[in-house]
Amino acid sequence: MRYLTAGESHGPQLTTIIEGLPSGMPLVAEDINIELARRQKGYGRGRRMQIEKDKVEILGGVRHGYTLGSPVALVVKNNDWQHWTKIMGQEPLGDHTEEIKRKISRPRPGHADLNGGIKYGHRDMRNVLERSSARETTVRVAAGAVAKKLLSLLGIEVASHVIEIGGIKAESSVYSSIADLKERSENSPVRCLDEEAAKKMMAAIDEAKQNGDSIGGIVEVIVEGMPVGVGSYVHYDRKLDAKIAAAIVSINAFKGVEFGIGFEAARKPGSEVHDEIEWNSSQGYIRKTNRLGGFEGGMTTGMPIVVRGVMKPIPTLYKPLQSVDIETKEPFSASIERSDSCAVPAAAVVAENVVAWELASAIVDQFYADRFDALVESVNRYREYAREF
């Protein structure tokens, strides 16, 4: 499975084409729209979320509610495009001056502006920021939603929650089931399971917004139901935890990732890091603990996958940082685009979906997957084999 996205933040639409889905898999637009709506929620979101009400159009690869096995084309239109047709239009500029006035020559610290401008020769930084914008994650979530549908039909559930914002940590993130985790996370404005910590997080977001600043945090993705042995210990580029780590860090503003106890493993002896093995007739092989977050040797252990991502504060500030105009080389305050004071709750949804994509892709790679019914049968047979091994 693979997908490619296209489109700019203020362009007419965002597009993704997904290749490699099995035929005969149930899929309707609402499966995707649910995830798109979740991405737009969260305390600290900016005005853009009030403008865009993201809805997907399935324009290829699906007929009468089932995938065909051919590439699936998904489109999310930008409602704000009507106000940007001159600035972001595809036709040559001509003699217009209004668009030239919107030229951006002051790169913003923390963004792709300057590096991207140098790389591609863009002296108008808008050519960079329009594509490097986190708006692109809209269709990454759309692709992830398709992956989540495939996983759910195989009995694999994916959820996320926030464990830290602006230095405020959830003291308790205990949940009774994946369904309980999903419900409580959805009902929290900051997707935090600790209600007291959630109140403090919202207060910190309010304070950052009032100060023209932004704050980051840590999100956690939990996956239950993955079969044991998905991934590979044979080749470095087929290790599934490595692929998930890359997917997490590829999300805008994410700067770190860990599995299970993560970096804490560096401070503990081996006896407090590795997960001892047990066996019973109903479950097969299980671990007494899950400190390694569901992975050993680049493969799933059958235990819940636990992966966390660190999101830095959004660099677009209403109290702008200093920069240098690339035309005059004079210092200026960096230009401001619409922004969030905190996007960590929304980023948790993005993380959830990029992880889902990597898991679904690994399953399709490992099992026969031209037909969805055959994929289900193949995975079920493998689960039985692993249980009796």
Task: Describe the protein in words.
The protein is of the alpha+beta class and about 400 residues long. It contains twelve helices and 17 strands. Helix 7 crosses helix 11 (about 345-365). The strands form six sheets. Strands 8-7-9-15-10 form a five-stranded antiparallel β-sheet. Strands 1-2-6-3 form a four-stranded antiparallel β-sheet, covered by helices on one side. It has a two-stranded antiparallel sheet with strand order 4-5. It has helices spanning about 30-40, 50, 85-90, 100, 115-120, 125-130, 135-155, 180-185, 195-210, 240-250, 345-365, 370-389, and strands spanning about 1-5, 15-20, 55-60, 60-65, 65, 70-75, 155-165, 170, 215-225, 255-260, 275-280, 285, 295, 300, 305-310, 320-325, 330-335. The chain has one domain: Chorismate synthase AroC (Chorismate synthase, AroC fold, 4-Layer Sandwich), CATH 3.60.150.10. About 35% of the residues lie in helices and about 20% in strands. InterPro entries: Chorismate_synth, Chorismate_synth_AroC_sf, Chorismate_synthase_CS.
Radius of gyration from CA coordinates: 22 Å
CATH architecture: 4-Layer Sandwich
The largest beta-sheet arranges its strands as 8-7-9-15-10
Structural class per helix/strand content? alpha+beta
Morphology: globular
CATH topology: Chorismate synthase, AroC fold
Catalytic activity: 5-O-(1-carboxyvinyl)-3-phosphoshikimate = chorismate + phosphate
Cofactor: FMNH2
Protein name: Chorismate synthase
EC number: 4.2.3.5
Supply database-style keywords.
single chain, 389 residues, alpha+beta, Chorismate synthase, AroC fold, five-stranded antiparallel beta sheet, four-stranded antiparallel beta sheet, 12 helices, 33% helix, globular
